[in-house]
Structures are given as C-alpha cells and as structure tokens.
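Record pair follows.
FIRST:
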Amino acid sequence: MSKERIKVGTPVFLKPVNNAARYGRKDILEKVVLKKGRKYFYVGNTGETETRRMFKFSLEDMKQVTEYSADWELYLSKQEIINQEEKRKLMFDIRSFFNRCSSSDLTLDQLIKVHSIISE
C-alpha cells in the first residue's frame, strides 16, 4: 500500500485481528477515508464527524494507531483480504500434510514434482 493511494473519500476495508477477531468479529468492514493529515489518516462511516468514533491509521506503515494492540488491519480492496486468507489456508494444508506424512506416502515422481515447485 502506498501513501499516494490514500485520499479523502477512498473506500478501504478493515479486517478484524487480535482482540476484535478473538471475541467474535469475523466480518470485513467497508469504511471510507474521512480525514488525512501529514502523519495520520482517519477511517469511518461516510458523514461521520466525531474523531473518537473513527479509526486512526499511520500513513508511514498503514497500521492502526492505538495505545494497545491493533484491532483492525487496513486493505484497499476486499480481494486482498480474500487472497491472503486463501494463501494462509493453503499454507496450513501443505504444512499439515508434510508434518504427518511419511516418505512412503509419496512416490519418487511426486517428490520430484514437489521439489521442482518449491525450488522455483
């Protein structure tokens, strides 16, 4: 993500992490950039005017600014979130397979194919 793409009125998507995800929030929120300064920008619902109800993010690293752990990760498209979740799921499945399988589960040809893919 780049600072140049963050402008007032730009739609953004928030994915719950840490405590927000731990306590049942699973939905992705669609918000709008409402204010932008030199160091921070604020995200909230369209027409919202109270800063305390907005989410504050740093322009430098696009992370939520908070006194504790961040509850939201910011993305510029919903597809980025879907791709990241799919990647995480695939990595989990692949790791699980190789953690529990023995060398007799795979043929030599299969191992050669896997090795060629990994070494790309």
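SECOND:
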Amino acid sequence: MTFQPLLRIGPVRRFTRNLLCPVDLLGRPLFLKYTRDLAEAREEIRGHARLARHYSVPALHAHLRVPGGHLLAYERLPGGINQGLLLDLLNTDEPSSDLHAYMARLTAAYSEVVLATAQPVDPAHVVRKLYWDRAAPGGRLDTYYADKDFLIADGLIDVPVSRLDTYTLSINGRRHHLDWAATLRWLRAHFAKAEPVWAALTQGDPTDVNLAHPLAWFDYDTAGMNSIPGEFANFLWYSSALGGWLVPTYNPAAFADHPATFTHVPANTPELRRADIDRTTSTIHINYAPCLSASRRTAVTAYWNQLVQPVADRLWPGANLANLLRPYLAMRILGVYNLADLAPKDRLALLARLAEAMSPTFNPTTYFCPLESPCPAP
C-alpha cells in the first residue's frame, strides 16, 4: 500500500510582490497565492468572480486573511517545467500547430466577450491600475521620472533625456523628434481626461504567463471593465518586447519553472548596430534591429489580424489605430520599468521605440511585428 501524504508543498516562487506555491492537500491539487496587499487581494477576488462568467478560469476554492496578508487557494491546472503557459508555446524555434490553434481559440474567446460587453465607460469606472493610476499624481510616472534626469545611454549617448528635444533622432535612417518632458506632460494630461473610453470585460493584463495552455486566464486583480485599446497595447507590447526580452532579463526568478525562456532571449532582444552623435548637425544616430522570434511574430500577427483589426472595424470604423494605441503603448514603455534603472543599451532601445511610437508615422502593424527577424537564432 502506497502512503499518500496529506499535505505536499511545492517550491515557493516570487512573482512581482506576490508569493506563489503549488500544494497537494488531501489529494487535491491547489495553487496558493499570498499577497501582502489587502486591497489587491479584494480586487483579485472580485475580478475572478467577474471573469468566471465569461472566460475559462480555475476555481477559487478559498480565500482568507493570514498574518501579514491574504491567501487565495485556486484549483491548480496541469503544468510543469516548460509546460502549462502560452509562454511555453512561444519558447520554440518555429511556431507549432499548437500555437496556431491556441491563438485561434484565444482571439475567438476575446472577440466574443469584447464585442458583447463593449461600451463607452466613464474613466472613473474602468480598471485604472495599469494606466490611469500610473499617470496620476504620485503614480509611477512621478515616482520614476518627476524632477529626475538621466543619460540617454551611459557611455554611448551621454546626453541627458531632458535635452532630447534639442536633437534630431535618426532611427534606422528615419528622422524623429522626442521631447521627454512634453511626452510625460502629454501622458499625464491624456489619462486625466474625463471623457468616456471604450471598455470591455477582460482580464486586463494578458501576458504570456497569465494565459494558461490549455486556454485559461490567471491573475485577476486587473479583471473588469478595461480600456479596449489598453488591453490590445498590453498584449502586443508584452508579446513583442517585455515577455521575450525585458522581463526575463530583469526579473529572471519569475521564469524558474520555464527555463526555456532564457534560451530564446537573444532572438527577442533588439540588436544595437549604431549609437553616436553628430555634433555638427545635432543628430543622434541609432540603428537597431527590432528582433522577434518566429513564434512570437506568429502570435502577435494572429492577435492583430484575428482580434485587434476586426474589433476595431466594428467599434471604430475608419479610425486611426495608431492614435488609439499610442498613449497606452507609451505608458507600457515608461510605466513598467524605470528606464533609468536599465542597462544603457536597453534604455537606448526603449527610447528609440518610444520615439517611433510618438511619431506621426507610427504604424502598429510593422511596429509590433517586424516582417523578419534579423537577429541571430539562439
């Protein structure tokens, strides 16, 4: 007779400010999430209830106050090392049939719910955490950048960001202009507007670690009525920049159970080819290759063609999607990591990406999904 322990506890992982742990209790597989932020725990519980009526989510079995925080016990979905997430379908050299099928299911589920729940909403009543709160006084824009200055790229472009507006930026041979202070003011003003925004019921933070394979949604503290352009910008930027490059570079502990991520970082990291200043013309030259692996290009392309464009055609026929996405994309570039804390090459690449996003010529279809990846394969 084989003895089954009443309680089996797996490795504890830290993700952002939360602790996550798999547990087997009386033969039942559970996933425990511990957070110190009571308000965030309450939002998570409410968000899970909202989402469960429209999306596939693991059951929330229990939640309780514990010393120093709040503990939530979820049904644990199948998974393992390099298994169980959309991330794992992206950590391949070439896109698989599973990835194509997954993106078809994902975009179909989103299309149905977004179009069924879409409506203009007062910005006071949308989920504000990822955009409005970060642009508000005392939010991340202020915490990271208010009354602070830093070099564009130490040792490469030794010019403070506060003086960017005095230079022409030549990025991959195209002329751009970026006024750092004006960009911050514009973002604060944009997210201080009182006019309604188009919102729909979504999870709000659709990253490749918050999407399970088979399809299900994790992490619910931003679930609710979310800005639709904000939802789109979040997935597109995470899939094309954060998930394959910046997050594994600056938060590697989050990928302890998905180590294949690190093998593919080179294929998703922009390759800097030129960075210098022509003082005679006040021009900063930046040449870089916007690398994206074949699997991530496939996911981003499917998301755009099967979700973003059809929804936009229904809700905003004839609208310029670049203008709709721009403020949300800029907030994702500036409001996730403090650019001053990043390595000079990474900071320079993000400033170049910001300048391209703020440009009147910003084209989301080529910006998020370059036609080919000129970076060397991992």
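COMMENT: The radius of gyration is 21 Å.
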